[in-house]
Each structure stands twice: as C-alpha cells, then as structure tokens.
Write a structure and sequence with these properties.
heterodimer; A: six-stranded mixed beta sheet; 0% helix
Chain lengths: 119, 117
C-alpha cells in the first residue's frame, strides 16, 4: 500500500516570508514518482513538478524549490518570498512503478496543506 | 491546445436519481483518470483507462458506478441510484505516456461538483 502524509494541515505566513511544505511518503515500489499540485480557490488542480525516485537532484524553478530525500522518504516544497497569489491548497502525490521505470496509473494524494499568504 | 474539460460543472440531484458526467481529455492523450475529492481531502483514485481499455478500478467504485471510454477519446462516469454520500467533486485527468513511464504527469480538469439532496 502507498501512503502520503503532508505534515502541515494549514500554514499562514506574511507576504515575502519563505515557507516550506513537508511531505512524507511510504511505498514498497523500488521505482516511483512524486508530484506536487496546487489547487487555487478556483478548484482546478495545477501540476507543479514531477520527480522520479531514481533522480535525487533537487530542483529550483523561480521562487519554487523542491528537496527530495530518499533516505527520509521526504519530498518537501519551499516557496521563497511568498506572494498573496501563492495562497492555495497544495497536494503532494505518489505514483508507483515497476521494473524498467514503468509507471502504474493512479496517484495517491496527501490530504493537502492549506497555505494562506497575508499581505 | 485546450485543457481537460468536464461537463457539467455542477449537478444537483435527488437521492435515487442517476447522473452522468462527461470528460474530454487533452487531445491525443492516451490515458484518462477519474478521481473523487470530498471537502478538506485530497483526491481519491476511482479508475483509469489506457485508450479504451479500463485498466484499474478502485474499491471506491461500487457497483452503482460505471465508467466508459468507448472510442478512446472522451469518457463518461455514471452513478446510479445516487446517495448523499456520493456528494463530492469528481475530477478527470489525462496524460500522454510512454511505456517507460515518461511524461506521466496528469493534467486535471475543473471537476464536476455533485450535490445529492
């Protein structure tokens, strides 16, 4: 069975603060894929990033950065200099895989972290 | 290129009625997924298709639920004899995947919000 736990249920920050959303996962698959999605008030899930289990390089995209640590089964997401538009629910998700990097279908989501950025 | 579209966006029905939702994936995407999201929770997997073949169904998908993707393009999700517990947001997603798992990001539609009275 696969499980994703998002450590924080809600986070509230003031604009320009840095904020980190923590995600811990469980899987028995040797190959797997991790994702972050953003769900703004409009409701539509927006894909942010995918990370393969065999690629532990961290990634930075503008104000967003992701820290993948296989040893601690964590895939954390940091927003630098947060803005009001970052206010949303953020979901971490996991997808299993098989030999040769084949990927199974379903995503297993965490329960979400509600981020509120105050002006 | 348009994104994933879902119709209707909102549906209010009375308990016991049947409802059907439609999902149009991103053009040429070979995989299509259905998820359900209740308030304050993450989406939960229901089922998915590779082209027209339904490859996996969750235990959440009771006998009252049926999904089809007859021509490998759009998909429908039908719920028969709706119950109040079926009230949720039903999300559709699609992806264009290679056999090695590349490009397996799923892109989501806006969802259909179902309210069962």
């Amino acid at each position: 069975a696969q499980k994703v736990t998002q450590v924080q249920t809600e986070i509230s920050v003031v604009e320009k603060e840095d904020v980190t959303l923590d995600c811990v996962y469980e899987t028995r698959d040797t190959t797997y894929y991790l994702f972050w999605y953003k769900q703004p008030p409009s409701g539509e899930l927006v894909f942010l990033i995918r990370r393969n289990s065999f690629d532990e390089q961290n990634e930075i995209s503008g104000r967003y950065s992701w820290n993948f640590q296989k040893s601690t089964s964590s895939f954390n997401f940091t927003i630098t200099a947060s803005q009001v538009v970052d206010s949303a629910v953020y979901f971490c998700a996991l997808r299993g895989g098989g030999a040769g990097g084949t990927s199974y279908g379903k995503l297993t989501f965490g329960q979400g972290t509600i981020l509120t950025v105050h002006p | 290129d348009t994104g994933v579209s879902q119709d209707p966006r909102h549906k209010i029905t009375k308990r016991g009625q049947n409802v059907t939702f439609r999902c149009d994936p991103i053009s040429e995407h070979n995989r299509l997924y259905w998820y359900r999201q209740t308030l304050g929770q993450g989406p939960e997997f229901l089922t998915y298709f590779q082209n027209e073949a339904q490859l996996e169904k969750s235990r959440l998908l009771s006998d009252r639920f049926s999904a089809e993707r007859p021509k490998g393009s759009f998909s429908t999700l039908e719920i028969q004899r709706t119950e109040q517990g079926d009230s949720a947001m039903y999300l559709c997603a699609s992806s264009d995947e290679l056999a090695d798992g590349s490009y397996n990001e799923q892109f989501f539609g806006p969802g259909t919000r179902l309210t069962v009275l």
